[in-house]
Amino acid sequence: MTQTSLKANIGVVGLGRMGQRHALNVLHQVPRARLFAVCSPAPHEIEWAKKDLEPEGVQVFDTFEAMIRTPGLDAVVIASPSELHFSQTLAAMELGIHVLCEKPVTKDTAQLRQLMQKAELHPQTKVMVGFVRRFDENYQDALRKIKDGAIGEPIIVRSHGAEKLDKTGYFIEYARVSGGIFLDTVIHDIDLTLSILGDDIQPKALWATGIIAHHHEMKDFKDVDNAVAVVEFWGGRIAHYYHSRTTSNGYDNSTDIIGMTGKISINSVPHHNRVQVSNAAGITQEVSPSWIDRYREAFVTELNEFTDAILDKSELPMTLSAALTGLKIATALRKSLETGGKIQFDENGDEIIPGTK
C-alpha cells in the first residue's frame, strides 16, 4: 500500500450478526477497501460465508491463525467473542496488521495498558476500538455545532439508552459473560461523553446504583437490568447515565448536551423513520428495533474512516488512551454498583483507594 489509490485488504474475524454486517459493509460500502478474507470456527457461519462471500472472491477460513498469516492481508476487523479480542488484537499487531476491534478489546485496564505499550512499539500499525456512536451522523453534527459555539462550553452530558425486553432467555446467557451493564452498554455513552467534553478529560468521582426489574437471574452475577450513574470530571463537568434492558417499545437512545449558553438534544423522541400516524388512538411513531439498526450507517462511516487512516497514514479518529479512560470509568461504575460506594480519582484519573497515599 504505497499509493492512496490502492485498496486495503481487510479480513473479518467472527461471522456472527456483527461480523456479517462488517463483512457486507466492507464488500459493498467501503470503496477503498477489499474484503480479502473472513474466518469463523462455527460451521453455520462458514456455510454462510461460502454461499454469500466466496463467490465474490473472498477467502474463507475456519481458524483465525490460518487467516491472519495469509499473504496480502493488511487489516482485520475483529468481531469474534469478547474473550478472544485481546489475544487476537495482539497477534495481529505483532504481524504488522492493522486492527479495528469491536468493544471490548479487553475488560481489564492492565491489559489495555499492555496493548497501548505494544502499540507504541509498533507505531506503523494502527489499532482502534469500535465505539460506533462517534461515527453516527447525528452525534457528529452535534459536535460540529458545539465547535461552532452553538451552546457555549459544554458542562453536562445526560445520556439515556434502553433496549427491548428479551423474554427468550438469550439475554441472560449473554449477560453472564458481558461484564455487566456498565462495561457492556453504558461504556458507549461514556465514550460519547469523552468525545464531547474532550478525550483527555479525567474522572474525579462517580457513583452508580440499579435495580432488577425483570431479569431476576442477574442477582447471581451481581448485575442489574436498570442502572443509573453520575460521573464528575476534573474541571467541573458532569455526566449522567440511565440504561435499561427492559423497555417495551424497542431501542431507545437519546442524549442531551447542556452548555453555558444552550442545549443540544440528539434523538429526544426515538424514531425509526420520519413517519407519524395520527388517529383516534393519538400520534404514533415507530422506534428502531435494535441498536444495530439505529447505527446502521455509523458502522459504514467507521469502516471508511478506519480505512482512510490506513491508506493515508493519518491519525485514527479514536485513540487507545480514550478507550482506557472509558474502561476505567466503566469498571469503577461496576464496582460502585456492587459496593454502593462513591469512588474517587486523582487528577491523573487513577482511582484513590481509601487508606492508601
From TrEMBL:
<dbReference type="GO" id="GO:0005737">
    <property type="term" value="C:cytoplasm"/>
</dbReference>
<dbReference type="Pfam" id="PF22725">
    <property type="entry name" value="GFO_IDH_MocA_C3"/>
</dbReference>
<keyword id="KW-0560">Oxidoreductase</keyword>
<protein>
    <recommendedName>
        <fullName>Gfo/Idh/MocA-like oxidoreductase N-terminal domain-containing protein</fullName>
    </recommendedName>
</protein>
<dbReference type="GO" id="GO:0006740">
    <property type="term" value="P:NADPH regeneration"/>
</dbReference>
<feature type="domain" description="GFO/IDH/MocA-like oxidoreductase">
    <location>
        <begin position="139"/>
        <end position="264"/>
    </location>
</feature>
<dbReference type="InterPro" id="IPR036291">
    <property type="entry name" value="NAD(P)-bd_dom_sf"/>
</dbReference>
<comment type="similarity">
    <text>Belongs to the Gfo/Idh/MocA family.</text>
</comment>
<dbReference type="GO" id="GO:0016491">
    <property type="term" value="F:oxidoreductase activity"/>
</dbReference>
<dbReference type="Pfam" id="PF01408">
    <property type="entry name" value="GFO_IDH_MocA"/>
</dbReference>
<feature type="domain" description="Gfo/Idh/MocA-like oxidoreductase N-terminal">
    <location>
        <begin position="9"/>
        <end position="131"/>
    </location>
</feature>
<dbReference type="InterPro" id="IPR000683">
    <property type="entry name" value="Gfo/Idh/MocA-like_OxRdtase_N"/>
</dbReference>
<dbReference type="GO" id="GO:0000166">
    <property type="term" value="F:nucleotide binding"/>
</dbReference>
<dbReference type="InterPro" id="IPR055170">
    <property type="entry name" value="GFO_IDH_MocA-like_dom"/>
</dbReference>
